[in-house]
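Quick entry between incubations.
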Amino acid sequence: MSKVTEIFERNRKSGESTLIGYFPAGFPTFEESLEACVAMCEAGVDILELGVPYSDPVMDGPVIQEATEVALSNGFRLVRIFELVSAISKRVATPILVMTYWNPVLQYGVRKFAEDLKKSGGVGLITPDLIVDEASTWLEVSDELDLDRVFLATPSSAQNRVDRTAEVSKGFVYAVSTMGITGAREDLDRKAREVVSKVRTASGSQNVAVGIGISTADQVHEVNSYADGAIVGSVFVRAYASGGITELKRVTKELSGK
Amino acid sequence: MANSRNLRDQQGPYFGEFGGRFVPESLIAALDQLETTYRTAQKDPDFQAELAELHRTYTGRPSILTEVKRFSSHAGGARIILKREDLNHTGSHKINNVLGQALLTKRMGKTRIIAETGAGQHGVASATAAALFGLECVVYMGEVDTKRQALNVARMELLGAKVIPVKTGSRTLKDAINEALRDWVTNVDNTHYLLGTVAGPHPFPEMVRDFHSVIGKEARAQMLQEFGALPTALAACVGGGSNAIGLFHAFLDDEDVQIYGFEAAGDGMDTPRHAATLNFGKPGVLHGARSYMLQDEDGQTIESHSISAGLDYPGVGPEHSWLKDIGRAQYRGISDSEAMDALRLLSRTEGIIPAIETAHALAGALKLGRELGPDSSILVNLSGRGDKDMETAARYFGLLDAHE
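Done. Structure below.
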């Protein structure tokens, strides 16, 4: 069983919420992102989603876009993602999934990226612009190396697509709560429940976490009442940008309820 | 060359190893709907008749051929013949695709279109179609381009479109596409993304090509009828590659016709400031398709440079990548200064002011003519007129200073 799956199991048994927290690697610098990620994990994030800064992040809203632009302009290089994963893993036990657009992986080499991720202690990838239909190499390599692979399901996805996504995803399925890009929204779309229910229909055993638009502790709690976890991104980035580690820890504790 | 007799029959999603759908899952349902709607329309005589009638009574098709003898005296004596897409309504080839996709938008029951634009030609064409069909229209344009193409911004607004300056990344065409994709992800229920080039996820490369293939179909028949032979070579400028593929497509299986695309070499092919994707790029994934693209070793997109906003793009359509790799077409670079010289030459020898994008094809044809010799003929896609570029051209040639 993957470390990510174990976390869901554990929290399900103890009745606790699962919080998946995103932070961009290299934001604002390599060292500062290391400290920020460790702080988030210590303050209650159950699974860390570490973002690879990319020049053309079409699934991300302005907060994350700006943060990844800062990371790139401060010289973040792709190869350091493994160094970062390894450094975080040495200090906390939280499983780390790397969130990356597909081109950086393609250029690095899918197999080599997967091998280096494995070596560094990372547990898998979240791939926002890679659909299952285009993922044959990644499916093969992740099977071989026993890495998690998180694909997206959205309100517009037909049931037969969700079936396939739920079948091949490992770790969990990323249920996109609303038609839109990352960024906090005041009300969670009811569509989130529909996507989760499509995943449940597809598979009785697959975990599903809801992301996009989640910003408050109440939303984290509510999402956990019908899904297996809540994914939060922009809020952490904004917290760090406004008040550094202190504010990041405060927000993490508030959202995790721990 | 494999399958050399049916290169024209290529359908998406893949052109060799290029193409595909590398987009967030959120867009798949819309792409599926678009593909289904398009496949149905392709086979529907009513759709084809409606589009043909629009082209006859609104676009002004067929566009004519013009032989430019004074211009071609600078091309080693080769005959140069222009396919006059600049005479289309809105001043470029872009209207061919826009009308087709606007009809599909109506068929899908959508009420809003969004578009990206670099030079403004596609934005103007989209705003035009939106006005004609009563659709809401939002055009994303890099902030840098809104400045160098201010007149086109005014045009789009006059047509009732909303122009949103994009302030992320390099603030040019690439980022305008990112922003349009973000809008589409958010508003896909009522919105069609009217993509303006042969890039992007399937079915765009194939569908946009098909809508522009009227250029080559007409030109091929006109060459046979008016000149009694097919041309020795074709020349077109390539940014994303829509006007080029529109001309090339009908000739792909004419093995004796050589095919040349001309990319923007910006400051020069020996400098890092260019937009020569097929010459200097590597295969990668950008804006939904696998194709050649300008990128660093980490897969981060490198910003392109060109005096021409319409060619200032670090990607290219997947079918061009395939045509390059199988050797059916050759792609060369033309610098800013070579293009501007050709722009002035055509203006002064023929009384035709081409768009700066198009001037790259003209500069390429001049060089090509000297290589191919006096017995050759070169068919150039005159993809757009230069009205929109007057400010850039006037500044470049110092025409404004003289009167100050």
